[in-house]
């Protein structure tokens, strides 16, 4: 059964940190690039970061560069998004997605499989 489950979201104060996890089953994760996206109410889905299938290449959107770090552990079929210096404008539902192939990009329609998302709320 193909399954992608995000976890680690929640309520955090401005300036705080969260680490999101993306647990995958039914896939050989080593065959897929991974992307993290988010969508806030009334806004389009935004690509945040992605990592190549082997983990050697990563891209970041300007909005999160220097604050977010993507990583993956293919042996554990899991990916992560470490988020630091969070601000209220980071409030959104965060999604993990898989794209078959080596390279990654931040274009959401390039991704084939999506999780259900995890809510991140940054508020004092």
Radius of gyration, in angstroms, nearest whole number? 13 Å
Determine the structural class based on helices, strands and strand pairing: mainly beta
Largest sheet: number of strands, sense, barrel closure: 7 strands, mixed
Order of helices and strands: EEEEEEEEEEE
Query: Which regions have little confidence, pLDDT < 50, spanning 5+ residues?
Result: none
Question: N- to C-terminal separation?
Answer: 40 Å
Number of helices in the DSSP assignment: 0
Shape: globular
Mean pLDDT: 96
Number of strands: 11
What level of helicity do the residues show?
under 10%
Beta content comes to over 45%
How is this structure best described in words?
The protein has 124 residues and is an all-beta fold. The chain is built from no helices and eleven strands. The protein has strands spanning 3-7, 10-12, 18-25, 32-39, 46-51, 58-60, 68-73, 78-83, 92-100, 113-114, 118-122. The strands form two sheets. Strands 2, 4, 5, 6, 9, 10 and 11 form a seven-stranded mixed β-sheet that branches. A four-stranded antiparallel β-sheet has the order 1-3-8-7, with no helix packed on it. The chain is globular, with a radius of gyration of 13 Å.
In short:
This protein has 124 residues and is mainly beta.
List the helices and strands and how they pair.
Layout: E1 3-7, E2 10-12, E3 18-25, E4 32-39, E5 46-51, E6 58-60, E7 68-73, E8 78-83, E9 92-100, E10 113-114, E11 118-122
Parallel strand pairs: 2-11
Antiparallel strand pairs: 1-3, 3-8, 4-5, 4-9, 5-6, 7-8, 9-10, 9-11
